[in-house]
C-alpha cells in the first residue's frame, strides 16, 4: 500500500472562516443515553469552511453547482510546487524554471506553516496570468493553501474568472506543511451538494506510482 497524506483542515468549532461568514458549529440532535441507541449531530457551516472546492456557481452566474461538476478534475496525477518565496500573488515568474510542459493538476504551497488557529488577511493569492500559464500546460485543477485564489479585498476575482474561462476546478485551504514538492496522486472529490456554490472536501495525496 502506498502512503497517504491527509492535506485537509480539521473541521471543528473555532476553525477560522472568511471575515463575516458563518462560524462553524455542531450540536447533538440525539445523545446515546436514557435508552437512545445512537449519537447524531447536526452541523451549521459555510460551504467555504476549511479545505474546500469552489463550484463554478460561486464565481459565475452560469456556472454549475457542486452536485453537477465532473469529478475527473479532483482525482488523478498532481504536482505540488513550492511557492513560499512568492509575495502578494504568485506570478508566472515565481514558478520553477523546470515546470513540466504538460501537467494536469497543480497544488501551490504558499506558506511554510498553515495558520490553523488564526485568519490571515494577507494570504498569498494567484495572478490571473499564472492561471493562464497553467491552463496552457493542461492544468484542469488548481489548488492552494490560501483561503482564496484572489486577494481578500478583491472585487473582480480575476483569478477565479480565468479559472472559469479555462473551465478548471479549484481547491482552497489545503494544508501542505508536510508535503515535499513533487508528483503525487490527488483524491479530493466534493460532496454532491445540489444548488450550492462550494463544498468541504477530504483532500488526500498518495505517492505517485510514476
Ligand atoms: N471568493 C472566495 C471566497 C469569498 O469571496 C467568500 C467566502 C465566504 C464568504 C464570503 C466571501 N466573499 C464575500 O464577500 C473564494 O475564493 O472562495
Ligand atoms: Zn472558496
Ligand atoms: Zn475561491
TrEMBL record:
Q: Out of the domains of life, which is the source?
A: Bacteria
Active-site residue numbers: 58 (proton donor/acceptor)
Q: In which pathway does it act?
A: Amino-acid degradation; L-tryptophan degradation via kynurenine pathway; L-kynurenine from L-tryptophan: step 2/2
Please provide the record's keywords in A-Z order: Hydrolase, Metal-binding, Tryptophan catabolism, Zinc
Query: Mind telling me which Pfam families this protein's record contains?
Result: Cyclase (PF04199)
List residues binding Zn(2+) 2: 54, 160, 172
GO annotation, biological process: L-tryptophan catabolic process to kynurenine
Instruction: Cite the cofactor comment.
Output: Binds 2 zinc ions per subunit.
| Entry EC no(s) | 3.5.1.9
Any one Gene Ontology MF annotation carried by this entry is:
arylformamidase activity
InterPro entries of this UniProt entry?
A: KFase/CYL, KFase_sf, Kynurenine_formamidase_bac
Do the record's keywords include Ligase? no
Q: Is the Zinc-finger keyword given for this protein?
A: no
Which residues make up the binding site for Zn(2+) 1? 48, 52, 54, 172
Catalytic reactions of this protein = N-formyl-L-kynurenine + H2O = L-kynurenine + formate + H(+)
Q: Which residues bind substrate?
A: 18
Q: Which cofactor does it need?
A: Zn(2+)
Its family remark reads: Belongs to the Cyclase 1 superfamily. KynB family.
Q: What is the role of this chain?
A: Catalyzes the hydrolysis of N-formyl-L-kynurenine to L-kynurenine, the second step in the kynurenine pathway of tryptophan degradation.
Q: Which NCBIfam families match?
A: trp_arylform (TIGR03035)
- Report the PANTHER family cross-referenced here: CYCLASE-LIKE PROTEIN 2, KYNURENINE FORMAMIDASE
The UniProt subunit note reads as follows:
Homodimer.
Q: What is this protein called?
A: Kynurenine formamidase
**Source organism of this protein record:** Zobellella denitrificans
